[in-house]
Design a protein that fits this description.
Helix content is 7%, strand content 28%. By secondary structure, it is mostly beta strands. Strands 1, 2, 3, 4, 5, 6, 7 and 8 form an eight-stranded antiparallel β-sheet that branches.
Length: 308
């Protein structure tokens, strides 16, 4: 970035301001978020960064049917700036702009471009990867590596085919892991272990150790006479204020009960954009670093599936 700034600053030194050439006092986008909009054409996108401090922006517009910020690229997407469907533009404005400048079909007429640099050649490199998948159950994904082997896919307590770090109900008892963690003990963050067997409730299918699986302690009598509503958290058969699945003295069982909770996984995709071997306006005078990184942009998408 410093070299890139040096290039632009050097233009000021080499070219006279009297002949109308660009005078740039800053070119700094490191602390600016990378944004994206869809263009008006099919498979058209624009990445951009806006520096409101000095009313400048840099954008990369392209058309590519293989790109999506929520689909992993098996290999980088390369696009030649010489392709007429691709353009790299640096601009200065008479006033500050917002994302609407790039995201609306018609930019506001009050915004004027005062200076402009256009990339005449270069190669864009775009990648999209998954950087995180998590069930947001209150336990960081890295802490759900129970086997301590660095492979989160190996840990699947309930053997339902969903590893713990992507399973909101790790023990398949129809009670969310996030609900089974709090222990109600002041100044103690250990996960709740109702029966004291050193297995936390969220990893144990029989929380109170009474021999009846927690999922089967759902014995609510419904209005139509059926038993169970897939929620063990509203069953207190003896009325002692302790729910059946946490009360070893209550052993009523609904043997027909099955795990039914939907499961939601939050997936974070990271798209990285770099333009390599750039030439601006046909000349790279004093441009020592010919590569510019737009940095990356993260987007998180929740996906809910039904447990079988």
């Amino acid at each position: 970035m410093k070299k890139f700034f040096f290039f632009l600053f050097s233009i000021v030194l080499v070219l006279s301001c009297d002949d109308g050439d660009i005078i740039i006092t800053s070119f700094e986008f490191d602390d600016v978020d990378l944004q994206i909009c869809k263009g008006i054409k099919e498979n058209e996108f624009v990445f951009f960064k806006i520096n409101t401090t000095v009313n400048e922006a840099i954008s990369y517009n392209f058309i590519n049917e293989a790109f999506s910020d929520t689909i992993v690229t098996s290999e980088p997407i390369f696009i030649d700036l010489n392709d007429k469907s691709s353009s790299l533009v640096y601009r200065q404005f008479n006033t500050s702009i917002t994302a609407d400048y790039y995201c609306s079909n018609i930019p506001p007429s009050t915004i004027l471009v005062t200076e402009e640099l256009i990339g005449s050649s270069g190669i864009a490199e775009i990648t999209t990867q998954i950087i995180e998948e998590d069930d947001n159950d209150g336990i960081p994904a890295e802490d759900e590596d129970l086997n301590r082997n660095g492979n989160l896919e190996d840990d699947d307590t309930d053997k339902d085919g969903i590893p713990n770090y992507k399973d909101q109900d790790d023990d398949n008892d129809n009670i969310l892991t996030s609900v089974e963690i709090p222990n109600q003990i002041p100044d103690n963050d250990d996960p709740r272990d109702t029966d004291g067997d050193d297995i936390p409730d969220y990893l144990e299918d029989d929380d109170d150790g009474d021999g009846v699986p927690t999922v089967n302690e759902d014995v609510t009598i419904n209005d139509d006479g059926t038993i169970g509503n897939n929620n063990p958290r509203d069953d207190d058969s003896d009325g002692d204020g302790i729910l059946n699945y946490l009360d070893a003295d209550t052993v009523e069982s609904n043997d027909a009960a099955k795990p039914t909770l939907d499961n939601t996984v939050q997936t974070t995709f990271r798209t990285t954009v770099t333009i390599n071997r750039i030439i601006f306006d046909g000349s790279n005078q004093n441009f020592q670093d010919e590569n510019f990184s737009f940095g990356f942009r993260d987007v998180s998408i929740p996906k809910t599936t039904k447990k079988m």
